[in-house]
Amino acid sequence: MDLKKNKDTNLLIPRSVKEQFNLNGRLAVITGGAGFLGVQFAETISEMGGTPIILDFNKEFIESAEKKLKDFGCSKYYFFEVDITNEKESENIIKKIWNEISQIDILINCVALTKDTIEKTNADFFEPFENMDQKLWKKGIELNLTATQLMCKIVGKKMSKRGKGSIINIASDVGVISPNHTIYEADMHGYEGVDFNTPSFYSVGKAGVIHLTKYLATYWAKNNVRVNSISPAGVYRDHKPGFVEKLSNQIPMGRMALPNEFKGAIAFLCSDASSFVTGHNLVIDGGRTIW
User: By residue range, what is the domain housing residue 131?
Assistant: First the structure.
């Protein structure tokens, strides 16, 4: 391997770009890892040579995710059923992983509020802001922001002591800009509207994730722990044609994101290819936030 040594940090950066993206021997914890994006990120880690460890509280999601990883050809991975909003439970599972499996090289936080959690609050996820149940607001902030903060605290502390690590927090384009509320509403041109929206707690939580990322990037920079985030746009998943057209008109590239379009960003931020990148929020939105 042809390496160039940085005399100030004693880091060894491969000259080969292919080698820079190599994750052989690295272990990545993915919170909310049995969800739609979490599984894709686990596939990415595995394909680039690393070992994904998926944390999720939904047993059905875990069973489905394991089948998907097997079908993709992943040979080594771990699953743990855990409530990552519970600090003690989370500390215990991270301690177990660190001591019994391996040191944690990568943390990807993509936990978010799920339908199962919504039902437990007995509140309407898509209620107008004026009528929002405060229990739902608190649960939304807890899962979309506080859970990320908690896992950064638990895992980042260990990475900091070790002097190495990469944390990627999953934010959102609507954490950068406000959602355009008109894309959900019926109009005079025959658009019937949809029965969903982007709740305020989602945007506020994801905006918090972005700033938490910047805060921790400066806080742990001296310990060689890099902290970045990505802000994806909405992914097409059999949405109604009218909604797809309405949203696509807000995007310079004229379409929604497609499944697997965020994998390259994850591979980059996890690896030595981004060794001098920290505190960055990588927006992947087809240009939506620049209009």
Answer: 20-285
